[in-house]
Amino acid sequence: MKNILVTGGAGFIGSNYINFILNEREDDRIINLDKLTYAGNLENLKDSENKPNYIFEKGDITNSEFVNYVFRKYEIKYVINFAAESHVDRSILGSEIFFRTNVIGTNVLLEAARRYTVEKFLQVSTDEVYGSLGPTGLFTESTPVAPNSPYSSSKTSADLMALSFYHTFGLPVVITRCSNNYGPLQFPEKLIPLMIINCLNNKKLPVYGDGLNVRDWIYVIDHNKAIDLVFEKGRVGEVYNIGASQEMKNIDIVKLILKHLGKGEELIEYVKDRPGHDRRYAIDSSKIQNELGWKPSFRFEEAIGKTIDWYLDNKNWWQRIISGEYQKYYETLYGNRI
Ligand code: NAD
Ligand code: TDX
Questions:
Q1: For a substitution probing ligand 1, which of 5, 6, 12 has the most ligand atoms within 8 Å of its CB?
Q2: 268 CB contacts (<8 Å, ≥6 apart)?
């Protein structure tokens, strides 16, 4: 049995990961360490919470005393670090917490991993570390890092730190860099759930700038299968890009959601652009495909429909979220843009 510390397991990707893994196998024990920030929601884990090999510990990855206690208590030998502040717009409104959690928090975990001789440490990272692309080309693992937002610069710092722990101390670190995820349980500050929910509420759909920025979309289950493979078989000291080669312009996604929900394009509202808005992301994932045999199984056209249906079927989940603190954030961000 492996004792796997999963941090940030109450967030979007982490909770999908835990639910998926605990459904697949019973021989690993997952210890989910999460601070339960605005983005963390234990309701995401209701399918897993009663499983005997699932444990939840509420805590902050920047608290080294607590992190060390968790490593000791559960004899942690494996770490998958999902925990992060993850939203670019919030990092523009206030960057401090991004550097605290994403950089200091990762440092605390790496130090604990050294102390307790962890056998694998997977750092979940993002394609945003590579900066922005022009109309052509793809990010490969050897593309130089050139982050543009406080969020992406904090993730880049964490990546470089993790690699330095491999080179200096021989800590068995591996890094995944994935493109934009979508699917069930995504917090409604991100493009796809925000547009679905606004559409269902007949609210305006705020498209930044000219709407022609491009993102490369991957269904969250495909991302998590890739993480699992890298966790099991990825070579330490290496970076693996993850992406499903499904580039879309933002405006085309918004129109697709409107069409799927039978609403008119008059709901679209072009608003002031995000400062420093990266124009295009696109991932070359041939390394993980050729070396580890991963390939994505969901096509965007099909999985976006599944995702929209999930939000239609789970109105209670997102209504509870948007009725609280989130309302204040929405006013702060979009009040200034219109
Ligand atoms: P999310 O914001 O939905 O979830 C983050 C989770 O981390 C939450 O449960 C939160 O409570 C927890 N957390 C935050 N600060 C913490 C702290 N100090 N201590 C302990 N827990 C803390 O994020 P997500 O979209 O699920 O992203 C997960 C990871 O994947 C992040 O590292 C992100 O950078 C990376 N990533 C995300 C995407 C994407 O499209 N969402 C793409 C590539 C990489
Ligand atoms: O209201 C909006 N209007 C809009 O036009 C929002 C929220 C977004 N956008 C645009 C900005 C981006 O071009 O949509 C695109 C996607 O935006 P986000 O969902 O905020 O994602 P992004 O900034 O691309 O970052 C995401 O992918 C990489 C995740 O939030 C990161 O955690 C991940 O690392």
A1: 12
A2: 204, 205, 207, 251, 254, 255, 258
Ranges of residues in the chain with a pLDDT under 70 are none
Give the residues surrounding ligand 2 with Cβ less than 6 Å away: 86-88, 126, 128, 180, 190-191, 194, 206-208, 213, 215, 250, 274
Atom of ligand 1 nearest to the CA of 187: 3
CATH topology (fold) of 2-181+219-242? Rossmann fold (3.40.50)
Domain boundaries, the chain: 2-181+219-242, 183-215+246-277+300-326
This prediction's pTM: 0.98
Question: Is the domain covering 183-215+246-277+300-326 a CATH 1.10.3720.10 domain?
Answer: no
Pairwise CA distance, residues 138 & 46, whole Å: 38
Ligand 2 centre from 96 Cα, in Å? 20
Measured between alpha carbons, how far is 286 from 273 in angstroms, rounded to an integer? 33
